[in-house]
Design goal:
Blueprint lengths: L2 E5 L2 E4 L4 E8 L6 E8 L6 E6 L5 E3 L7 E6 L4 E6 L8 E9 L7 E2 L3 E6 L1
Parallel strand pairs: 2-11
Antiparallel strand pairs: 1-3, 3-8, 4-5, 4-9, 5-6, 7-8, 9-10, 9-11
């Protein structure tokens, strides 16, 4: 069973930065698709950024150029560096991990609140 523990959320002013971290137990991250999703109140959970086990990364249009996903497979940790934050980035951010095999079960972190004040 994979467990994901997130940290790094908080309150920041618009234009500021935060870095989220997600560390896994019970998984070899080298074989996993890793990502970050977010969910604002009353909204669906949306993809923010995702990284394949091969190392390619893609981003939602709304965060391109501002957010950077990175992974340290040796530490079983994935990061989300968030710069130039906007009030619209306010949401609960969730870490996601899934083994690259199509039939694998996805895993989610508990979520961490990010609030950007104007």
């Amino acid at each position: 069973q994979v467990q994901l523990v997130e940290s790094g959320g908080g309150l920041v002013q618009a234009g500021g930065s935060l870095r989220l971290s997600c560390t896994a137990s019970g998984a070899n991250f080298a074989h996993y698709v890793l990502g970050w999703y977010r969910q604002a109140p009353g909204e669906e959970r949306d993809l923010v950024a995702i990284s394949t086990s091969g190392g390619s990364t893609s981003y939602a249009d709304s965060v391109k150029g501002r957010f950077t996903l990175s992974r340290d497979n040796g530490k079983s940790t994935v990061y989300l560096q968030m710069d130039s934050l906007k009030p619209d980035d306010t949401a609960v951010y969730y870490c996601y991990a899934k083994h690259y095999l199509p039939s694998a079960t996805p895993f989610w972190g508990q979520g961490t609140q990010v609030t950007v004040s104007s």
